[in-house]
Amino acid sequence: MSTDPLPILQSTFGFPEFRGVQRQVVDRVLAAENTLAVMPTGAGKSLCYQLPAVALDGTCVVVSPLIALMHDQLRAASAIGIRAATLTSVDTDQMETIARFRRGELDLLYVAPERASGESFRNLLGQAPLALFAIDEAHCVSEWGHDFRPDYRLLRPLLDHFPHVPRLALTATADAVTRADILDQLGIPREGMIVAGFDRPNIRYMISPKDNTTRQIADLIAEQPGPGIVYAQTRAATEKLAEALGRTGRPTRAYHAGLDPQVRARNQADFVASEDMVIVATVAFGMGIDKPDVRFVAHAGMPKSIESYYQETGRAGRDGDPAIAHLFWGAEDFAKARLRISEVEPHRQAGERTRLTALSALVETAGCRRRILLKHFGDESPENCGNCDNCLSPPSAVDATEVARKFLSAVFRTGQSFGVGYIESILTGQSSERSLMNGHEALGVFGIASSSEEAALIKPVARALLLRDALRANDFGGLEFGPEAKAILKGEAEVALIVQPKRERRRRGGAGA
Ligand code: ADP
Ligand code: ZN
Fold first, then answer.
1. Rg (the chain; Cα; Å)
2. Which helix (H) or strand (E) holds 110?
3. Relative to the CA of 19, which ligand 1 atom is closest?
4. Is the ipTM reported for this complex over the cut 0.85?
């Protein structure tokens, strides 16, 4: 018996046709085959289980990691007449939901993994027909994934308890290793994996080193009309940046978990309704928000991983019109990320390191950004995409090996405890009370990079050395050698700096902090 999903797509969801791989996924699910759908953000994953939930008899159980996400989904599904409910600790109508489920009155039942894996939930599920298990954000099941949740591991016994109920795992972000692991963990066959193309051709990828981030983002805002999201790393940074950017004249709001819930909800609603607002947010913002006309996403600091970068930038331009993703990075971001990795459980470090390396390759490249990004997700792409900063204005490479050696020697001679600014003053031979007191003016490295060409390379060199782990920064900004330092000092490795051409920027009066 085959169900034709198209009439349901049109009548219930109001869409004329399926997009991308939706049809393939839905067909597998309707044929009761276990499936993993890897689809980028905005590709329309929810429909892949919502439509079968409507088409099939019985309830579709949706496992989802976040209560806020479940409630967003619930609202959207109810709005189009799907019979849905959530079963979470904050719901006051749990008894009613359970009764509705037992009477077979629910198309969709959303639960968190910790509840889903419990025995009482399993007993409950035995009391009414089931259509499907949908496991959203399925990368959470994998220790290789970027967001491992141990509770996801406990789902398998539940799934196996109902062997005839098909499983649909969904994720937006999973590299090859993670995908294979998801299949294993959830008992889905290899041929059950459907991967959508990851390219978002209308997004222009831009990456620049930080150099007064507020000013850089203000410039971006001045250039780029339409709604935008700026990601900052901490709550305090969010508020400070929102205030500074507010002075550009664009309506600006902050968004983070520490705000009063009402203020937060209002800021979000204002943003969704607005045609020119800039929202400065921590990364939690954007999950489950359906705003197709976001014209830019800026990162005022490094994302957690290349997956996060893809997911966060993916919130730009869902309507298919041109949009910009601009990342501003600092070498200290990488140093901090490395430190963080050294503190996670040992068996997870390799995976985390791979993801960080992928991110640094993306930042460092003189080639096409899109190509590197897509390669990470296993997509082929042309050599030159024509829509990233490097393709649009190719950077040139400068050999900075000599300056890098001088820099490393100065770090070594001064005892591996001073910061970039001090090392720079030593190399350029600027006398100061501090360098006199330290006796550093007598060192051979004092003033050995005093020509203006060399002096101009010192800061970029320091950044490059930190990025490649030839230098590490301690908590006080003091520099010490990292594992890559030796090869450079011994002349076994070269240091090329990528110099991006200065881009013309239209300045508007008053922009910036
Ligand atoms: P994801 O979870 O993959 O990020 P969503 O399920 O939130 O994506 O869907 C993104 C947007 O695309 C939503 O606004 C949704 O209504 C819309 N959408 C989904 N499927 C279709 C379709 N076949 N045609 C048009 N719009 C669609
Ligand atoms: Zn490119």
1. 26
2. strand 108-111
3. 23
4. yes
Place of tokens 């749990």: 94
Whether 242 and 360 have beta carbons less than 8 Å apart is answered as no
The answer to whether 215 touches 245, Cβ cutoff 8 Å, is: no
Cβ 22 under 6 angstroms from ligand 1: yes
Q: Which residues contact 99 (CB under 8 A, 6 or more apart)?
A: none
As given in the structure block, the two tokens for residue 501 are 């051409």
136 and 62 in contact (C-beta within 8 Å)?
A: yes
Which residues neighbour ligand 2 (ion) by CB within 5 Å? 368, 370, 385, 388, 391
Classified as helix, coil or strand, 293 is coil
Which residue among 9, 26, 289, 290 has the greatest number of ligand 1 atoms within 8 angstroms of its CB, and so is best to mutate? 290
Which of 46, 48, 272 has most ligand 1 atoms within 8 Å of its beta carbon, as the pocket-test mutant? 46
pLDDT reading at 106 higher than 60: yes
- The residue whose CA is least distant from atom 19 of ligand 1 is 44
Q: Is the CB of 73 under 6 A from ligand 1?
A: no
Residue range 127-136, pLDDT digits in tens: 999 999 999 9
For residue 476, name the pLDDT band (cuts at 50, 70, 90). Answer: confident
- ∠ CA 350-355-357, nearest 5°, is 90
pLDDT > 70 in the chain, percent: 97
CB-ligand 1 contact for 290 (6 Å cutoff): yes
47 lines ligand 1 (CB under 6 A): yes
Quote the ligand 1 centre to 44 CA distance (angstroms): 3
Alpha carbon separation from 263 to 227, 254, 269, 278 (Å, rounded) = 19, 10, 10, 16
* Residues composing the chain: 513
- The whole-angstrom distance between residue 280's C-alpha and the CA centroid of its chain comes to 15
Atom of ligand 1 nearest to the CA of 22: 23
Is 50 exceeded by the pLDDT of residue 361?
yes
**Mean pLDDT lowest for which of 101-110, 388-397, 472-481?**
472-481
Among the atoms of ligand 1, which is closest to the Cα of residue 314? 4
How are beta strands 130-135 and 167-171 bridged, if at all? parallel
Q: pTM score, two decimals?
A: 0.73
